[in-house]
Structure formats: C-alpha cells, structure tokens
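Inverse folding, one chain.
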C-alpha cells in the first residue's frame, strides 16, 4: 500500500542499477525538499536514535497525515524525502497500516545503509507511527 510518489521512487530505483546512482538519487530527493523552518527545529521535533541531527514536523489535517523534515546529513535528508513519499497524504489509519520495512526493502535500502543510518531510519518511522497512533486515539 504505497503512494504514487513512493511508487515513482521504486520505479526510478529499478531503472538505476548501480547503488551509487541510487544513493545519489536519494540525495537529490532530499535536495528537492524545502528546508524546515528553524523555528520548527526544537526538542519536540528532534528524532532521537539518529547519528545525525533529524527533525520531523508532523501536520495532521482532517485525519490526513503530512510531515516536513530536515537533517544536517544529505543522505538522511534524502531518506526523509523517501519517507515523505511513503507517508504524506495518507490517513492516520493508512499510516499505521503501512509496512515500512517491507516497502523500504523494495528499494534495497536495508542492504546499503550503515547500521547507524538503518537505526536512524527505524527511529524516524517509529516517530511517524507514534504520531499517527496518537492522532488516531
């Protein structure tokens, strides 16, 4: 159950055979995001468990989930963009139903990220799920 935006990333990854090209593509996704306002980079939006600085700012309107994010590491900023493609525009119930591990495995990220980056990605997914669960309650 992935969004059209995420499916587009999956298709791009299928076209890019070399992992270095895929890595660059993830970074380009992050560069294309608007920066998070400094006023939103506060302890409440900071994600613990990431090797780099990461902030996620969720917005839930009429039961629909969106978030913006920022990181001081280019690859992590790209991973935030990938997660935005996966989750933005879904209802909170749909967010909770997403098998993030399975969807991200379609990109082969688990095989090519360092343990620290994988842990950080897991922490970001956990924060997204916690936010959606709190909104659904």
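Residues assigned per position:
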């Amino acid at each position: 159950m992935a969004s059209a935006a995420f499916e587009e990333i999956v298709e791009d990854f299928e076209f890019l055979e070399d992992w270095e090209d895929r890595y660059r593509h993830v970074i380009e996704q992050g560069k294309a995001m608007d920066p998070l306002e400094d006023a939103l980079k506060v302890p409440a939006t900071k994600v613990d468990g990431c090797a780099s600085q990461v902030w996620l700012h969720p917005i839930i309107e009429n039961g629909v989930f969106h978030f913006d994010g920022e990181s001081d590491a280019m690859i992590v900023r790209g991973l935030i963009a990938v997660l935005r493609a996966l989750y933005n525009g879904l209802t909170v119930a749909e967010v909770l139903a997403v098998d993030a591990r399975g969807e991200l495995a379609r990109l082969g990220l688990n095989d090519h990220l360092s343990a620290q980056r994988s842990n950080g990605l897991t922490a970001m997914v956990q924060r997204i799920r916690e936010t959606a669960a709190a909104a659904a309650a």
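The beta strands are 54-61, 64-71. The mean pLDDT is 92.
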